[in-house]
UniProtKB/TrEMBL annotation:
Transmembrane segments: none annotated. Gene3D superfamilies: Periplasmic binding protein-like II (3.40.190.10). The lineage of its organism: Bacteria, Bacillati, Actinomycetota, Actinomycetes, Pseudonocardiales. This is Sulfonate transport system substrate-binding protein. The keyword Coiled coil does not apply. The keyword Signal applies. Residues 1-34 form the signal peptide. Residues 145-267 form the SsuA/THI5-like domain. Keywords: Signal. It holds the Pfam family NMT1. It comes from Pseudonocardia endophytica.
Length: 362
């Protein structure tokens, strides 16, 4: 776990260094904490006194630009609770952090909870989910959509079916994994028909591709730009082609959703976060690209690419039946490709409890 940025009540900002170790995991569902009583989905917890001064909300992000963007936006000043924002790279590590109670909410993919459900020993549709997706963002109009499938020209891959026998890099647990299993399913392939190369996170998978160590990768243009611009690689399919939402999803545990004060803090956080994407981010290109350049050490060109994608990023409703149906299709594709253990009803893991905050009525 990297340094944790803490935004305290009254707009006091300090940096804490945590020595907590977050163990990476491949399939973590069996170890997830037991959740609480049934009937949780979409339900509102008991009312609070309104005093959140004793609440600490720990929100895991995957890259260090997020905490800096929260500060730069000015939308997270004077919080009525304490917000901690540890940087934990990769969906698998985010799941481990949530499982260990090191975090309350984690940034992953919108499919992550569904994959956990399909890998669980018990059927969560008959018992109760142990992890929920409560929010998500996507950018369907992004100029450089992610996740996308990129292939090296030297591999001679001209169709999805051409991946047979090839080395394909990916990382487990989030949107990249969703794109990976959907590529295989759409090609009529399984994990046994290719040489899977699982890496800890998207950055590592993209680096292996750019270095020529694998034939294909599911990633984003910004991560593989060097190979594409050099004429060594091409994009073969986008997330839209694959039916994958893209963007990001946010997960939490059932016990967090049963804590009225935590839920109130989460609602407040996502109301501000949604406003950041709608109102602040698209209108502050210099501030955003400045964060990308200073924190992520991106070139001005790469920072601009990421800004253009982020400028059209918006939250969507987790309770939208069409969205849930798309997630079921991705989960079923994962099973067909041999990427998860079971084929189950995953609709139970999508909890619309904060839809009013993420997608407020106009």
């Amino acid at each position: 776990m990297r340094p944790t940025e803490t935004l305290n009540r009254g707009n006091t900002v300090s940096t804490l260094l945590r020595r907590a170790t977050v163990a990476a995991a491949t399939v973590l569902t069996g170890a997830l904490l037991a959740a609480c009583s049934a009937g949780l989905q979409g339900a509102a917890p008991a009312a609070t006194s309104g005093d959140l001064s004793d609440v600490t909300l720990t929100f895991g992000f995957q890259t260090a630009d997020y905490p800096e963007l929260l500060k730069a936006s000015g939308k997270f000043e004077d919080l009525p609770y304490t917000l901690e924002t540890p940087v934990i790279s990769g969906p698998a590590q985010q799941i481990a952090a949530l499982n260990s109670r090191a975090t309350d909410v984690g940034l992953v993919g919108e499919n992550t909870a569904a994959f956990e459900a399909d890998n669980a020993d018990e059927d969560w549709s008959a018992t109760e989910p142990r992890v929920y997706t409560i929010a998500g963002v996507s950018a369907p109009q992004a100029p450089n959509p992610s996740p996308s499938l990129f292939v090296r020209k030297s591999a001679g891959i001209t169709s999805l079916a051409g991946l047979r026998g090839k080395k394909v890099a990916y990382n487990f647990g989030g949107n990249i994994y969703a794109g990976y299993v959907k590529v295989l399913a759409d090609a009529g392939l399984t994990v046994n028909d290719i040489e899977p190369v699982q890496l800890p996170d998207n950055q590592a998978a993209a680096a292996a591709f750019v270095a020529g160590k694998v034939d294909a990768v599911v990633s984003g243009y910004a991560q593989v730009k060097q190979a594409v611009d050099a004429g060594d690689a091409v994009r073969l399919a986008t997330n839209v082609d694959l039916g994958v939402e893209g963007g990001a999803g946010f997960i939490t545990r059932a016990d967090v959703l049963k804590d009225p004060a935590k839920v109130e803090a989460i609602r407040d956080f996502f109301s501000r976060f949604s406003s950041l994407y709608r109102d602040w981010y698209p209108n502050n290109e210099a501030a955003v690209t400045g964060v990308y350049q200073s924190v992520l050490k991106q070139s001005p060109e790469l920072a601009k690419i990421n800004f253009d994608n982020g400028a059209v990023t918006r939250f969507y409703k987790i309770g939208d039946p069409a969205f849930v149906a798309r997630q079921q299709a991705v989960a079923d594709a994962a099973f067909a490709a041999g990427g998860v253990k079971h084929k189950r009803d995953v609709s139970v893991v999508f909890n619309p409890i904060i839809d009013p905050q993420t997608v407020p009525a106009s």
